[in-house]
Amino acid sequence: MFIDSHCHLDRLNLDLYNNDLNNVIQNAKQQGVNEMLCVSVDLESYPAMLETIAPYSFIHASCGQHPLNQDSLVDPAILEAFCRNDKVVAVGETGLDAFYAPETIKVQTQSFIDHVEVATRVNKPLIIHTRDARVETIDILKNGHAEKVGGVLHCFTETLEMAKQAIDMGFYISISGIVTFRNASELRDVVKALPLDRLLIETDSPYLAPVPHRGKENQPAFVKDVAEFIANLKQVSIEELAQVTSNNFHDLFIK
What we know:
Blueprint: E1 2-7, H1 21-30, E2 33-38, H2 46-53, E3 59-63, H3 76-83, E4 88-97, H4 105-122, E5 126-131, H5 134-143, E6 151-153, H6 160-168, E7 171-175, H7 185-193, E8 199-201, H8 223-234, H9 238-253
Parallel strand pairs: 1-2, 2-3, 3-4, 4-5, 5-6, 6-7, 7-8
């Protein structure tokens, strides 16, 4: 019924689940979460991440280097080779973060450009992380002709104007548990205004657990709480929200 469009299963503290990923998956399935996208944050850990999720046909993968993991430049040839794996449905996450790491923005920028170029070569959509770099993010996507492959601005916390610019390029907007936070009124206004046929839902687990799970480690099962909150916000049924966001996920990633 639900799809967690962005999680980091390899970053979970499995001690909380009796050291068994199957318990995480079972928790998710009990809440109607039928598919997940496990997102890569660096090329070094990608092979192990892929091996972990390989047995599960309903867990998809991405490959990329997070903008906050930029100790060295990404080798585009290695990135491209990894992204050509059949289980990989997206390139990223990539993007720009001038909020937490303005000192590495030059390296982030080159990495982002490289990811966009690889995505267009392998014909797979992009997963974008963006913080305090709205103009720069959109410019790189436009200059790299990212509209050829589309993608998603994940864990979105930016403006409606930026969302519309991304949507105009064929991108989707993914909403995480942040929308449930007490201080997220501006984001809630943005979500209300976004077209349902361009929305995805995510946990970004193990981070950003939604209300009522604040203080706990996030997990894919909690995407149901995100979905219920958004359905109420947009005044649609939970069934409609689940169906449309699942269709959106398949339209973007499972071609």
